[in-house]
Design a protein that fits this description.
This protein is 77% helix and 0% strand. With 124 residues, the chain is mainly α. The protein starts with 10 loop residues before the first helix and ends in a 5-residue tail after the last helix. The model has no long low-confidence stretch (mean pLDDT 82).
Length: 124
Amino acid sequence: MAKEEPAWLEYTAYARNPEALALYRTHSTFLSTRRAKKKEAKGKTSSEQDPLLASPKPKLVALLRNEMQRREEAETRYQHVLQDTVQRDMQMAHLEAEVAQYRTHLQGLRLHIQREEHTGEFLP
């Protein structure tokens, strides 16, 4: 029985001929599936999904510093607003206490006037 020869060439035969090697690499099903898998994996983390992934580190650091400064400024503004609000609330509480004192005083005056009208006596 005769030994059958494989119908394909050995890889070393392709490696010796640059044109044949290029042709082999473009038409190889094994290499094309490997390329497809790499492309698929690469597509999942590509810059199309998140543009910051494509940015260089110095640009990201600059963006981070700008955001940190903006956040600090916002916190400072919020602290001033909070202080103003607390001061207004304290002033409102003080004014409400004064209004309560005046109402108590006016209520006492009304009772005094009603007694005078009822008894007919006018007391100083």
